[in-house]
Amino acid sequence: MHTARASGLLLHPTSLPGRFGIGDLGPEAHRFVDFLQAAGQTLWQILPLGPTGFGDSPYQCFSAFAGNPLLISPELLVQDGLLDREILEQAPAFPEGRVDYSAVEHWKNTVLRQAACFFLEKPSPLFQEFEAWCREEAGWLEDYALFMALKEAHNGAPWTDWAPELAQRRPAALQRARQDLQGAIRIHQFIQFIFFRQWKALREYANGHGVRIIGDIPIFVAHNSADVWAHPELFSLDEAGQPTVVAGVPPDYFSPTGQRWGNPLYRWDRMAEDGYAWWVQRVRKTLELVDMVRIDHFRGFEAYWEVPAEEETATNGRWVPGPGLTFFETLQAQIGTLPVIAEDLGLITPAVEQMRDACGFPGMKILQFAFGSGPNNPYLPHNYTSPRCVVYTGTHDNDTTAGWFAKIPSAERAYVCRYLGSDGEEIHWDMIRLAMLSIAEMAVVPVQDVLGLGSEARMNLPGRPYGNWAWRCPAGALTEAIAGRLRQLALDYGRYAPAETKPPLQEKMYDSRPE
């Protein structure tokens, strides 16, 4: 994948401002696109869009195909005539600055069910579109909707705790469940229809304003998911459906005992038998939603860290060969050119680099990793040997740049300042400038770094199971002055070529009030 020099921002939709407790796909998302355009930024990177499960993590979803109901905009439901505006006026006073997932789920699930019941009881012209969409998406939607309906019927219990005939997907039991739970199934189908309808409109708006969206595919899926329940033969499970081995990474920069993620591992041999059909479907579906995609933990396709399920940490694991280059060749043969960014961080071997380069995928360069080992550090921009990479000040897994700079050893801090010609007063802007001037074909900056926020704004702390993914951008924080500064950097370093005339920046773009 090759692209002209470009730059953009990293912000998951949950982090957008707004008065309903969590960012969504409505007016604020469209205003953010307006900000990107005004700032000369042509990339918007997000995290996975799936329905979050354990720890509210977008990397632990109930489905690799479904969308997150919490991202549905209530305001757009009102515009579509599916919800009374009075319901929005009765919304609780959610905390500002962070997502209270429990409170948001309680309110939004109630709202979505009200909209679903109204829609399903009084069919409108939109109903035919809904029915056609359900038929088109049946390959994943039927299993997902049934899975979620069964979870509700079992008070949220994981599928391994259901009655054996349901956990093992015996045909007669599934048929009875479809009949008994048909109302709940239709509600989940409607919610997914609305999510993808709103997302399609947002993506079209972004593309129409010169902004491409970079999505994210986690390499692994959650055990408590429709994917594992519907396709147990593709995963390393015992007779009770429990994982025999789980995913993780060995001790590293983030944790001295490694990270035991707990995801079930794939049976790559079984997947290869049908040409990786499940993966082909997954990647194809994701690329219907975004313009490019980051594949998380890319090195796991060359070799992955296998941890016995009974181990409490990831220390006692082993490296096991992954499917390798053949996997990506199969995907490309089925799908075509893959606009993929390889998340090639961690313990990277020459074999991983060879696989990445053979695929033609750009890798990632993290500037926060650049200053701890002297001038030969591969993350320092003067050591980049090819523009085929994406440079970041940091990612969602890192501290903010201001938080990182405050915590690194004094000698490393002094080197950072010497390298950047900086006094450290605006270290976030100095690092953004370094990313922009590098030869990397793409530069991406977390919004927290654009705002110069400290560790309190960190999105995720790897290895910590709870308390992540909650940061939200303050309303009005992305000002005209910030847009102008970003735009100038993009212009100066060849990452933005404006049209001859540009409409003036509208102040309402930064107004967080619903229209």
Descriptive account of the structure:
The chain is of the alpha/beta class and 515 residues long. It is built from 19 helices and 12 strands. It has helices at residues 27-38, 74-79, 85-89, 101-121, 126-136, 138-153, 164-167, 171-180, 182-208, 226-230, 268-273, 277-287, 325-335, 350-359, 401-407, 410-420, 427-437, 447-450, 480-492; strands at residues 6-10, 43-45, 212-217, 245-249, 259-264, 292-295, 303-308, 318-321, 340-342, 363-366, 389-392, 442-446. An 8-stranded parallel beta sheet has the order 9-6-3-2-1-12-11-10. Helix 1 links the parallel strand 1 (6-10) and strand 2 (43-45). Helix 4 (101-121) packs across helix 9 (182-208), helix 6 crosses helix 9 and helix 12 packs across helix 13. The protein starts with 5 loop residues before the first strand and ends in a 23-residue tail after the last helix. The model is unreliable at 500-515 (pLDDT under 50).
Question: Short summary of the structure?
Answer:
39% of the residues lie in helices and 11% in strands.
Keywords, separated by commas or semicolons:
515 residues, alpha/beta, eight-stranded parallel β-sheet, four-stranded antiparallel β-sheet, 19 helices, globular, disordered C terminus
Mean pLDDT: 94
User: In DSSP terms, counting alpha (H) and pi (I) runs of 4 or more, how many helices?
Assistant: 19
**What is the radius of gyration computed over CA atoms, rounded to a whole number of angstroms?**
23 Å
Percentage of residues in DSSP E strands: 5-15%
| Poorly predicted parts | 500-515
Order of strands, widest sheet: 9-6-3-2-1-12-11-10
Approximate helicity band: 25-40%
Largest sheet: 8 strands, parallel
Q: What is the CA-CA span between the terminal residues? A: 39 Å
Overall spatial form: globular
Look at the helices and sheets and give the structural class.
alpha/beta
Number of strands: 12
